[in-house]
Design a protein that fits this description.
GO molecular function: flavin adenine dinucleotide binding; monooxygenase activity
Shape: globular
Number of helices: 21
Organism: Rhynochetos jubatus
Keywords: Endoplasmic reticulum, FAD, Flavoprotein, Glycoprotein, Oxidoreductase, Signal
Largest sheet: 7 strands, mixed
Pfam families: Pyr_redox_3 (PF13738)
InterPro entries: Auxin_biosynth/cation_transpt (IPR050982), FAD/NAD-bd_sf (IPR036188)
Distance between the termini: 109 Å
Amino acid sequence: LGLALYAGGLCAAGSASFLYHDYCVIGAGPSGLQAAYFLQQAGRDYVVFERSHAPGSFFALYPRHRKLISINKRYTGKSNSEFNLRHDWNSLLSHNRRLLFQRYSRDFFPDADTMVRYLEDFASQLELRVQYNTAIVHVTLERDGQAWNGHYFLLTDQDRQNYKCSSLLVATGMWVPNVVNFPGSEYVEGYETVSINPEDFAGQTVLILGRGNSAFETAENILGVTNFIHMVSRSRVRLSWATHYVGDLRAINNGLLDTYQLKSLDGLLEGDLEDLAIVKDKKGKLHITLRFYLENRNTSAGIDSITLPQDELDNFATRAPYDRVIRCLGWKFDFSIFNRSLGMMPGKGNKKKYPQIKPSYESRGTRGLFVLGTASHSVDFRKSAGGFIHGFRYTTRAVHRLLENRHHGVPWPSTVHPITQLTNSIIKRVNEASGLYQMFSVLADIVLLRENATAFEYLEEYPVGVLAELETQTGRKAPNGLFVIIMEYGRNFSGADKDVFYYNRAVGEAQHAWQSNFLHPVIYYYKRLPTEGEMRLQPPDWPLPRPDAVHHIVEDFLTDWTAPNAHILPLRRFLENCLSTDLRNFFAESCFLFAFTRQKLPPSCQLGYVGMQGLLGSQGLRRRAVEAGLLEDYTLTDFSGDRTPDSRAGSQDQLLRDEAIPVHPLQHLVNAKDE
């Protein structure tokens, strides 16, 4: 009985020691700090757990050779801060203009230590609530009908301190090395521990396992001191300029391709690493063979008793022995801290290194658990920039907006404009918006039409994967149709085997805009919100279901979509066809004429002329309009002859020419009727 009472007391004390927060963020890397910023700006109860003594601990070690491949373009020729973020791949979003990465480094490819310093300043200057030296070692669920999501998240750290949260944001990144086990893999050195001193490789022959940026980064570092370097991977090399995916091989690291293609001993090979085996001889040299050669063999008898591929094929590519073999296979998500009750499962195929999540970045297994940052890249893997700072800073903001609507009743931010501003609003966003530009095919601007298409509501950077759930996810209604504005590359332009430098690769004429190859804006029109079923049945390689109408704005060499004839005019006519209206702006005289000749006035006349709004005339404006043929010159009206104009006609002419007195359209009708 005494033991039972003691155990019960421990349980009670344990349950009472839970520290509660509405939001718990695991990881103080870039995505964790970005989430913390938005939570703090909204005044929410949150905490960020970081296992290290400082934020951004991943960048304290990686990349090993300290050169980032995220560009830091300090000059664009523009002063628009939103536009400049299109070419700033390192800054996080905040209101503090001093926390732009360009103020920390002048290098186009910055040093990783600079990123560590930047993240430290971001956390400290914005006074984000980060709890350092706290490693979360276990996460489980506690069912509770009173909780936001029907359960609480229970977290335990390395000191057995317990925490309870209503929502969990996982921003741990990808830090567990990918390891392939095969016979002899114990002789392989890992990217995370291999020497970065080139002199340690002088006069050696090296085999690198992997074909990504970490593999080529390692090769680039020792290229000038080795006998030769061979690189083996299951897939062929993918160049980022061909795939338009920033995670593929970047030019800054591809020196080995030069030495390979220019016959300078180095080379690339394709093969399944799981089929390989490594045998070490008496001199310490490493020989590559195939796994099936070792089956039913007594490897302890020495290398002389083992059949090597060159014994049967004397020109076997990797017949030369190697001094070192280095594994550079990237990283994967750490699933070990999550209890099975959370249903955190790895993806399938080439996404198995990521956790399974929905297009809303919420776990497929547990409501209220969101994955942020690099670990959320399964949503747009090999398609967009969601695995990198310049991409997930926007997806993190999108997740925050979804949470604000779900838990606090704060609708997705929007602005309302008269329909006459639709063309201008779209042109403005496609020319400066950074979120659309970086997260192409993933985030989109949404235009919700009001009744009779007299006005519209504009929502920025919404995840298109959950377009069918727009009303519930944003708190906005879409009963009258909508436009979706998104950025896309050409359907058949990107790929590892594509020649992206072929002649006539660019499209310059508006009538061929749908054939544009480079990144360009695409506008989808839907008469109603697409359904879940339509989203699942969307065409392959399409970001959205088939629309009622679609318009491509022709690609532009300067990414400046402001040309009146090539860009703006075709867009306006597309919008007019969808809305069955005229979006042009008219002078008062034209509106007056339309009042007699049309059953429906253009919106600009309804909102301006009929509503006694718009610009007041001036003598200079009138003179320019007459010179351009837009208005008649009433000063030349000939009133000579047998008929003398009466006082009413003179008053009407005076009103038409007056620069300060607006004329109500009903007054025109009265005067016309009297005459």
